Request: fold
Amino acid sequence: MSKPVYGKNAVQSRNVEKISSYIWALAIGFIVFLVWAPFQVGLFNGQQIDFEKPIYLSSLLSSLLLLVWIGLYFTKFRLEGQRDALAVASLLLPATYALSLIGAASHYMAMNLLFVQSMYVAIFIIALYLLQQKQLNVVIQNAILAIAYFIVSFGLLNWLGSWKFAGGLIGWFSNTVRDGKYLDAVMTDSNGLRLTSIFQYANTYAAFLMAFLFVAVYALVRSKKWYGTLTHSFMLVPIIVSLLLTLSRGGLVMLPVVFILLLLFLKPAQQILWIIHLALSGLAALLVTNPLTTLGTELNSAFNSSAALKAWAYLLGASAVVAALGWVIQRYMAPWLQDKLSSSETRKFTGLWIPLGSVVAVAIIGFLLIGTGLKSILPDNIETRLENINFKQHSVLERFTFYKDAMKVVKDYPVLGSGGGGWSALYEEYQNNPYISRQVHNFFLQYLIEVGIVGFIVFMGFIGYIFFKYIRAYLKRDKDEFNNGFFFYIIALSILVHSLLDFNMSYAFMGILVFIGLAGMGAVIDNKPLRQSWNKAGIRMGYMAVLTIGTIFLLFLSINYIGSSDAALKGKNLVSVSTSYEEIKTPLVKALDARPYHPEAALYLSTLDMQVFKQIQDEQYLSEASNVLTRALKDEPYNKNLLAQLASYYDLKGQPDMALAVYSDNAYKFNWDITWYESLINRAQTLATAASEQKDEAKKQEYLTAGLDAYKHVVDGVEHLKTLPPEQLQGRPFSVTPAIALNVGKLQVISGQNDVAAATLKLGLSDDYSDTANREVARWYLAALKKAGAAVDQPVYDKLVAADPAEAAAIEAVVNTQY
Reply:
């Protein structure tokens, strides 16, 4: 007989082993952490003040849990098997993020990712050892399912108008609840209302729902208790309805992919049961989604008790019917199927036929829903989203663009990467067109950008080893084994596969689920013994010492960062309500004492100092603003707001040439920001005009070159955008704006290119001559024509003079000016 994944002896030893009250306390603390974490916007690493404190709190809590684990296992820990080696190897993950700090594009964001990665490793190590004990494994599985079901229920409460009740349930421990309402659990975009639940982002919620849809089916099929069967069956409809309400195309595309991948690991009887349960619940969900969409839209506009009752009747009724059918299937059909198909389970490749058939079935269903009138049974917004699933759809084309641009970053930061948050800091330099996306929409590419080839190899080697060992052990499984590990395999696989298309792992709660999944898989792999030399006391104690020192360091660093975050947020809030300089300054200084590179705190404090300088003209405040900005930019050289603030400082200092240098020297970092180029060209024109008046030919040429080179960049960019596929959105506006046309036209007039200037200025003209800016463009346009000896544009001249008769003299003044 082939060797089971974890054999009878191992099972018996875990059953016999008495779990101490301290281990139980650690497990309870672990579960409490899992309850708290998702309701902090899923621990989104949003790279802003509003999102950072929960990251530091989660790092603090996970460090405390890991310290408890160290205390409990300090004398017990042995490097005996490959599972123990995984605990040691996991430390390489945050180590690569620490190394990437060397060349980080943003120290602020890189530190945040270091906290996140350290938290993942703490969670992984704790879970790896807790889950090796069968009793705790079952408890943690049930806790994770309960949390997931609550999150689904929480989202639907918000969708169906009961947001106040939902907010009251978690408001006592979630800062995301404001005025009794969890912010943006239901959001509106160009597609209409979208359900986002705890994440405030529909696509990540879809990834979460996909994972736990399959977990629920798995739990249903393996359940031996009637109440377990009913509970898991009951939740299938709410999960599928929620998935449809996210309007996530990525979720709908990846769902059948993950489903087929999971079917390959099931026995034929289980495969059939999965298909039956999903088909029944899917049909029931489709039948009620239309009225639930309509009623949800109505209830989110104005609550109506009768509409709410009607909506809940639809949802609960469909769920109850599916639950009853699920119980009947498991009670009567499942044993019969198992008996009928048990003989075929020993044959090779038997389990492939149903997945292959499922591929065909999925293709047929996809064609019916996308290519025929069958999709009309769905709500209009879902129908529209289905119609847009194709490779020429703008979001698909945009993702391909992200991926190509991401590889440009990797090329420039190949070995150690650009640090955590590297893409967010750098993407404007490398982007192909002016899209806005601080996420790559591919977790693996984003990871490669952040830690380079070295870190990526470490990460892929780590998770690849776990998956390889798990799958190989699965193929050798005993017939009645492998219940617990597959639960965690589903979670890790589902989230990671969906993360090929989106930034789910930027929500640290999703990352926590993945690392718990990896730990759950690691806990049941074949634990081959290591060489005896690995288990020497020095190596064991060295590992525990490194882990202890690192954890204590992160613990105190987390406390320090929490204080800094509180202070920064307080300062930010005071800016809009207080007029006291000292009151606003005090928390901002405190925040910067701990993190002098904090972008927002540095921006608020420098702005405050510069405002005071404007009022009282005391150079001390200007000097302080300079020190704050210079220090922050040392670690945040790609922060656009800080750079623009530095230029404003030079303006106040009376050094407009230095301000222009800030814009000119950093223009390559923001290739598609038209406002940056507007300001650059405007500043170049102002200085060129002044230099011309002062007869400083060298300076005039310098400023002319800066302005005209920037204009060439804009013109080239406009031409490049014409090459984009028609289905792809270009992103932010990028064109020759009236302000650019005016200032470039002036530069061209100064340089003697009057005919070229006239053509440029004409680009900025509009028919609104009541607008003073348009009148100035027209004035310079007509003057450029006259200087070039060309015929006057009589319609423009007549309209301009009719709007303001003084413009006739103003035109002559420009014509008579010598440059």
About this structure: The chain has 33 helices and four strands. Strands lie at 177-178, 181-182, 186-189, 192-195. Residues 1-16 have pLDDT under 50 and may be disordered.
